[in-house]
Structures are given as C-alpha cells and as structure tokens.
Task: inverse folding
C-alpha cells in the first residue's frame, strides 16, 4: 500500500547545503593564500588571520551537523583539536550570502574538507561541477557511509541493537518533476518503504536534504506496515521551511533519520 503525503497533513520536498547556500560571486575566487586558524566557530566554519586581517571561512562542499544535532559537538571539537593555531592554505572559490569566504582548506598535505567527510564529521554537499575536488568529496562520503564512520555509525547518536526496516525507495521517488519545480510541489516527492516483516513507527523521524535547511518531521502516530510505502511530497506544510522545492535537480542527498539523528537510510543522486 502506498500513502501519498503532501495534499493531506498525514506526513510529508532545492537548495544545496554548504555550496548550495552560496550566492553567486567572484569575490576572491581563484586566490590561494596562507593564514593561521585563530578560532573555530563550528564543524565547518573557522576564522583565519591572513596578513593581519581576520577572515571567516566556510569550508566549501561539506556540511557539518548543526548545533544541537547529533555529532555537532564532536565535529566542532575535531576542528579545534586539529586546526586551531595551525597554519593553513586557503583555496578560495568565492563568497557566500553571509559574506564568508568559501574555500577548500589545506593543512600541510591534509585536505581538511575531504578529511571531515571521510571521518564522518560532515556530510558532503554536492560540489559544483567545476570544483576540481568534487570527485574526492563525494567518494569520501561513499567510503564513510560504507564503513559506518562518524555520523554514519549505527550507534553514533544512540545505542541501537538494530535499525528499523525502512528505506528510501529511489525507484519511486521523483526529485525533478516536469516543469518549474515550485509549480509542481505535489509531484516532487521521496518514497519511504518498509521492506521488513514488522510495522515501523515513524513518530518523530526526520527526512532531510543535504543542506542546513529542509527538515520534515513525521508526526506522532505515523507508521508503515510491512511492505507499505509513503510518499513525502514537497507540498506538505510540515516541511521546515515549507512552500518551496526541497530537492536540488543537479544533485542532492535524502537522509532518513531516527529522532536522535541516527541515519536509517541514505540516497545520493
């Protein structure tokens, strides 16, 4: 049985995180410069002093957990321990809408952006096709996911003997409907399938994209019987924020998480 969510309030679809929240700009693009990390703001943002000037740097193509989310503190601590007071090289690619410098950051031979993803301290954000490090970023996430590193671990956010049998059904999902995305929110939908033999209680579960935005929380009482499927449409008003497309046509990631943040299913396209 398939439930359609979007027109009804039962349950519930673009921008990229990291690079996707970026305003188009040429500010500083192409510059390589060195500086010293003097402050770590969070798991993907640092302050670097370059020739006496403090520059706020947002690591491009990665997205660490937000404050209050599972592993946010660990991601912050990881950068503090490994970067503070270190000399780094910035490979600048632009500036975001908040005025932060977007860059790949290197400490010696260490590519920090890639390292954050491969250790599971950050998700990949779909890199721009022109980014020479795009393949390395995505490959790092694939390997981290396969090995259960960091945020991908079954016990990363809580103790779980086993995970529920719910999965993102990519074959039934539609992230790029015909026509303008904002006019077809009912047709932009991700399918969740219970492919196990027992009912799954979805209360409080989270469906999200790769960005720092777009979270859908399943309401209390939402459940899937064995073999059942639910379609979570972008038109559903339970999306935060709502009334806009969720899934980026050029590439994105859908994550299905338990209320504590444990990843149950991942689909990157």
Result:
């Amino acid at each position: 049985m398939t439930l359609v969510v979007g027109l009804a309030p039962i349950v519930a679809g673009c921008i990229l995180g990291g690079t996707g929240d970026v305003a188009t700009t040429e500010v500083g693009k192409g510059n390589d410069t060195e500086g010293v990390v003097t402050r770590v703001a969070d798991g993907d943002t640092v302050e670097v002093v370059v020739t006496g000037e403090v520059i706020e740097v947002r690591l491009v193509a990665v997205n660490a957990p937000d404050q209050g989310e599972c592993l946010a503190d660990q991601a912050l601590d990881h950068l503090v321990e490994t970067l503070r007071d270190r000399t780094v090289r910035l490979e600048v690619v632009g500036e975001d809408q908040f005025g932060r410098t977007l860059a790949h950051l290197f400490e010696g031979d260490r590519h920090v952006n890639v390292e954050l993803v491969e250790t599971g301290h950050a998700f990949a954000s779909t890199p721009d096709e022109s980014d020479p490090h795009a393949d390395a970023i995505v490959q790092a996430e694939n390997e981290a996911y396969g090995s259960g590193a960091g945020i991908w671990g079954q016990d990363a956010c809580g103790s779980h003997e086993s995970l529920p049998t719910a999965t993102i059904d990519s074959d039934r999902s539609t992230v790029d409907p015909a026509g303008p995305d904002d006019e077809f929110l009912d047709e932009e939908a991700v399918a969740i399938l219970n492919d196990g033999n027992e009912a799954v209680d979805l209360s409080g579960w989270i469906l999200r994209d790769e960005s720092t935005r777009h979270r859908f929380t399943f309401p209390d009482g939402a459940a899937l019987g064995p073999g059942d499927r639910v379609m979570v449409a972008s038109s559903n008003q339970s999306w935060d924020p709502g009334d806009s497309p969720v899934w980026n046509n050029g590439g994105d990631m859908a994550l299905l998480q338990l209320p504590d943040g444990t990843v149950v299913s991942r689909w990157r396209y």
